[in-house]
């Protein structure tokens, strides 16, 4: 299907499946098209994409896929990996205008800081931050604690402690103690 005046034409299904597979291969990453780069303000949309956007974006998308694979995003439904954050950080740090500057983390990027001031993010759920092993240890420890607290002797001890606290006004004694300590 030919490109006319820089506009993409609709593709028929028959043409899609009848064309050789090599036609759909992407150019080698980080390889800009040969020839003199055109003036970005006067060139066609296709030339702008080929010379200005794709040489930067395609390596970023490849790095994104490698990182997503490392983070095991393709193995489960939920993950702590946020692709847009990774791509933002990658593109910012690989910007040719920042060639001699050091690596900047996502939340240290100026425009990200400004955005997050007005649009704070909700905290990441604990289920995404813990590994399966850490989560299982946490669940098991809560379960063991619950089972121990259900024991009749432990219940009796807890009732005795509660009664003792109430009789001796322990909370007031502790408050007085800390007031004295702060006054010193």
From TrEMBL:
Protein name per its UniProtKB record: IQCK protein
PROSITE patterns with a match to the protein in the record: IQ
InterPro entries, sorted: IQ_motif_EF-hand-BS, IQCK
Highest taxon listed in the record's lineage: Eukaryota
